[in-house]
Design goal:
By secondary structure, the protein is of the alpha+beta class. The protein has one domain. 36% of the residues lie in helices and 21% in strands. The chain is built from three helices and five strands, in the order βββββααα. The strands form two sheets. It has a three-stranded antiparallel sheet with strand order 3-4-5, with helices on one face. A two-stranded antiparallel sheet has the order 1-2. The longest helix has 15 residues. The radius of gyration is 15 Å and the shape is globular.
Length: 107
């Protein structure tokens, strides 16, 4: 079976696979998920590791799908999504933070 974009392949160990190398997202044996993200300079890529939970798998699937189109998430955004999954903030709080950061206030 070839690569499946943004979906899990069930086998001895579940993995999220994409065709590009290095892999954009992968579930590792130590119950962590490795996600390829944009580095701080915005010009390169680096790996980020998050715990293997159902919520975080959804994040990883989304990140893998975005990476296929050469769009990589930033570390800060992934961390905020993980906080929502852990119950530290709500989706509404995250939405307001994003709007405040990316919209210009009119006078």
């Amino acid at each position: 079976m070839g690569p499946v974009y943004g979906k899990e392949i069930r086998g001895q160990r579940e993995r999220i696979l994409v065709e590009q190398e290095p892999r954009n997202c992968e579930i590792l044996p130590n119950n962590t998920i490795r996600i390829l993200i944009m580095d701080k300079s915005g010009t390169g890529k680096e790996y980020m590791y998050i715990p293997d939970t159902q919520w975080n798998r959804s994040i990883a699937n989304t990140a893998a799908t975005m990476a296929i189109e050469n769009m990589y998430a930033e570390r800060e955004f992934i961390e905020k999504l993980v906080e929502v999954g852990e119950g530290k903030k709500t989706m509404e709080q995250l939405r307001k933070e994003i709007l405040a950061k990316y919209t210009q206030k009119t006078k």
